[in-house]
Design goal:
This protein has 245 residues and is mainly alpha-helical. Helix 9 packs parallel to helix 11.
């Protein structure tokens, strides 16, 4: 597992595949090994394989543990984006909705109220693609159900970008709902995050790229996503954004 983590940090996915093939049979179905395999499949865009691993196995919870569910979200969002790019809106819609669920076997309980701005915004895009404007607007409004927050201070640590990434999708929803000025203010604040951390880490670079992307500055966005991937080669969200450009 430690070797797999090191390969992941360097983006050595071929080595990770070879390592996974050599896992001894007596530990192949150990939950932590299964999760490593599922995450590897996410990184190599074999999203359905990752989903199958997560569906077919039981992952036991402990305090603060959410990894299986996090991989579940990544796998369904990844597969949904793949289908959305091909304009297969019905299939994409299924996966984006699955990303909002909390299967019991993954060991993470659902919150009292599920709010997932990224998934809701993408669900809205699918309904827009199907020309169901009413449903699209409904989900873009759901994207904005929680107060919009942008952190200040150190933004670049691992795991610190969730609120800010949500802010990006909320800004896109605002634009879809005709509130362009409010959306642009949020996107500019995301760009300004890059001036907080010196030197900026991979997550910060990614967030700045999102800010530029939201403002339609694709060249700048590409530059920041590539810089983020240079710092963290398996930053899957940055790969997705580059794939969609």
């Amino acid at each position: 597992m430690n070797l797999d983590n090191l390969y992941s940090l360097k983006g050595f996915n071929r080595k990770r595949i070879e390592l996974n093939r050599k896992v001894p049979k007596d530990i192949k179905n150990e939950p932590r090994i299964l999760l490593q395999e599922a995450l590897l499949n996410v990184h190599i865009k074999e999203y359905k394989k990752a989903i199958r691993i997560l569906k077919e196995n039981q992952f036991h919870p402990w305090e603060g543990w959410t990894r299986a569910h996090e991989i579940w979200i990544l796998a369904h969002i990844g597969e949904g984006l793949k289908l959305f790019k091909k304009e297969e809106f019905e299939g994409a819609l299924f996966h984006f909705k699955e990303a909002t669920k909390y299967p019991e076997n993954l060991g993470t309980g659902a919150p009292a109220k599920i709010v997932d701005p990224r998934a809701y915004y993408l669900i809205g895009l699918c309904y827009e693609g199907e020309e169901d404007t009413a449903q699209a607007i409904k989900f873009w409004k759901k994207t904005l159900e929680q107060p919009i927050r942008v952190k200040s201070g150190n933004e670049g640590g691992k795991g610190s970008s969730k609120v800010d990434e949500e802010t990006y999708y909320k800004s896109l929803a605002l634009r879809k709902l005709g509130k362009k000025s409010e959306a642009n203010k949020l996107l500019k604040r995301l760009i300004n995050i890059g001036s907080v951390e010196k030197p900026p880490g991979s997550r910060t670079l990614y967030l700045v790229g999102l800010g530029y992307l939201g403002l339609g500055k694709e060249d700048e966005a590409q530059s920041f996503f590539k810089r983020a991937l240079k710092e963290e080669p398996d930053l899957i969200e940055a790969k997705w954004q580059l794939d969609m450009l």
